[in-house]
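Standup notes, protein team

Yesterday: finished cleaning the Amaricoccus solimangrovi set.
Today: Anti-sigma factor structure.
Blockers: none.

Input for Anti-sigma factor:
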Amino acid sequence: MGKDGQGSAMNRGHIPAEVLASYADGSLADGMCLIVAGHLTFCPRCRDHLDRLEALGGALLSEPAPGCCAKPDLGKILSRLDQGEPRAAAPGIAIPAPLPGAPRCAAIDHLPRCLRERLGSALTAPGWRAIGPGLAVVDVPVAGLGTLRLLRCDAGVALPEHEHAGPSAALILRGSLCEDGRSFGRGDLILSRAGDRHAPVIGEDGPCVVLMLDEETPLEILPGR
């Protein structure tokens, strides 16, 4: 895996701690909640971090009220959490209820079970629109700010070079893509920052489906050079 700032602007990532905390307490925005829930089904490391975060919250809540007894020792609590082995079993994953106009459900094997209610449109269902040869998107209604889309790409397609106008997250649900010799596959979370530019190529192993969240404004396709 390459390092930030070397070659590709695409960075494979894990869910930041502050985002996991918002997810755990139910305050995370709708679109990012779906991205997080999907990634958690694939990533034991992030599931373990979520488990530890929830355990820490429970430990703090179970401590005596201030003024009654000694102040909770946060270091000891963290030490207790670190003694356990990471758990690979997926937790109960919180998913926001469907919004009016959301894509209809369908049994699509490549979608994580926790996302099928919200993202379960069949790939051939109405609502998909072509945005280029071998490329199609469908919007996913979400509450609050941000634009959430499913992107479907045929095998071997080269995406146009584009620039991100704001922070974005992409979760690969099926297939693979690559750029500058780096490969990204099912379950990988790709985090981009404002100003990042890239032009990934879809792998030859079949169609690729990506769940994309643009937190500010949609990405800008750059003119050909």
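Follow-up from PR in the comments: The longest strand covers residues 147-153.
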